[in-house]
Design goal:
It holds the Pfam family Prefoldin_2. This is Prefoldin subunit 4. Keywords: Chaperone, Coiled coil. InterPro entries: PFD_beta-like, PFDN4, Prefoldin. The chain contains two helices and two strands, in the order H-E-E-H. By secondary structure, the chain is mostly helical. The chain has a two-stranded antiparallel sheet with strand order 1-2. The protein is rod-shaped, with a radius of gyration of 25 Å. The two termini are about 40 Å apart.
Length: about 140
């Protein structure tokens, strides 16, 4: 009944984690949490962008003489169709810039994470798991 232990997890195997390694693990966890937050914010902004695009499509059916209620802050103002379309286009550009910034920030964080991941897996191998469950 001798078990060679090859390929099985040994809970009593002792892995030394230095202070620097613990700091890198903690940094990886913080970066991972930031990436998750950015992904959530990105979903919201992409949904906002979709809503703006749908509003532009809906306004293509509107009559030129109609006054369009347009939400500014917490107040609706009535604008001409042309002014409303211009406002929507400005908001779309602003929203797209926000999306681009978030995507760039996310890629930057993922790059830092992959550096940390390579170091930590190189040092600890199968004794550490840095993979996201949802990926």
């Amino acid at each position: 009944m001798a078990n060679s232990g090859k390929g099985t997890f040994q809970p009593d195997s002792d892995v030394h984690i230095s202070y620097e390694d613990q700091q890198k693990i903690n940094k990886f966890a913080r970066l991972n949490a930031k990436v998750d937050d950015i992904k959530d914010e990105l979903k919201v902004k992409q949904n906002d962008m979709k809503n703006l695009e749908e509003a532009v499509e809906e306004l293509s059916l509107a009559d030129e003489s109609d006054k369009i209620p347009y939400l500014v802050g917490e107040v609706f103002i009535c604008q001409s169709l042309e002014e409303t379309l211009q406002s929507l286009e400005e908001n779309k550009k602003r929203k797209q810039n926000e999306i681009n910034e978030l995507e760039a920030k996310c890629e930057e964080l993922k790059s830092l994470m992959s550096e940390l991941k390579a170091h930590l897996y190189g040092k600890f191998g199968s004794h550490i798991n840095l993979e996201n469950e949802e990926d």
